[in-house]
Amino acid sequence: MARDPALLTARLLADGYCIIPDLIAPELVALLDDELGARFATTPFCEGGFYGARTKRFGALLRRSRHAEQLVRHPLVLRIVEAALRPWCDRFALSLTQAVELHPGALAQYPHRDEDIYGGAKGEVEYQVNVIWPLTPFTAANGATMVWPHGDMEGTGIAAEMAPGSALLWLGSTLHGGGGNSTTGVRRGVIVGYCLGWLKPFENQWLVYPPEVAKHFNPELAALVGYAQHRPNLGNVEGQCPTILFRDDTIDGLAATDALRSDQAEALAGYVAEQEAARRGPPAG
């Protein structure tokens, strides 16, 4: 099961979370931690009880580390996210990247469901899959993420203890929260979130990665960030794929062009053909 995407997806959907050990090399974790270290040092503590007064957080990791893309586009993670979310969307999208550092004395985070940022129906749709990658060991004592598999705070929460290189995946519908840090060291991790492609992402990707930044991304990464249409036609720029902003200095004079699912395109073709045939009239005889 350790690397079987179907079994891991089944576990994620059944329990609301799954842990995959040894998913990336320790060397990559060390490089990422080193690149983010200076930013952690200069980042102030959060304000507010939810983010945590003894916690540091910052986003835009694709601009801060050349190694962050390897987490965002990890092939196994993307296959699981695809399987979990595609029943409700044409494509999924990156919702956030965030580095988190819990300092000694950090209180446990309020248990919550990430899907509550959206106003849609609950229990019918999965809106998100989120992943946390430890940069330091996650233990029950230093604030490992707590999950409640069956969504009931009266039940026993599980501390997702993991070594760096592992990953915890959880659904937007899963009750969870960061644990409290009762140790003398910090707990560091990176959160990568994915959402249905027709939703507004948690982190405003187009402002964090404007066209002048995103045009240098791998095309698959740019699409994941949001430079792609969600068929039919959602997220267009003058009726074009937003990647037009990577190539042209102006968006004037563009022809709006359909971006439809195959079933929609087929139905539309038949509808148009019927009208054109009616307009031509019966064949001359």
Description:
The chain is built from 10 helices and 9 strands. With 285 residues, it is α+β, with helices and mostly antiparallel strands. The strands form 2 sheets. It has a 6-stranded antiparallel sheet, with helices on one face. 30% of the residues lie in helices and 18% in strands. The chain has helices at 5-15, 26-42, 61-64, 68-72, 75-85, 205-208, 211-214, 219-225, 244-247, 262-280; strands spanning 17-20, 55-59, 92-102, 128-134, 146-148, 158-159, 167-171, 175-177, 187-196. It is elongated, with a radius of gyration of 22 Å. The mean pLDDT is 95. Helix 1 (5-15) crosses helix 5. It folds into 2 domains: 5-225, Jelly Rolls; 229-280, no CATH class. The N and C termini lie far apart (69 Å).
Question: Tags for this entry?
Answer:
285 residues, Jelly Rolls, 30% helix, alpha+beta, six-stranded antiparallel beta sheet
Radius of gyration over all CA atoms, rounded = 22 Å
CATH class of the largest domain: Mainly Beta
Total number of β-strand segments? 9
Give a short account of the largest sheet.
Answer: 6 strands, antiparallel
Helix % is 25-40%
Biggest sheet: strands side by side, in what order? 1-7-4-9-3-2
Secondary structure class reads alpha+beta
* Secondary-structure element string: HEHEHHHEEEEEEEHHHHH
Q: At the third CATH level, what is the topology name of the largest domain?
A: Jelly Rolls
Instruction: Write the CATH homologous superfamily of the largest domain.
Output: q2cbj1_9rhob like domain
How much of the sequence lies in strands comes to 15-25%
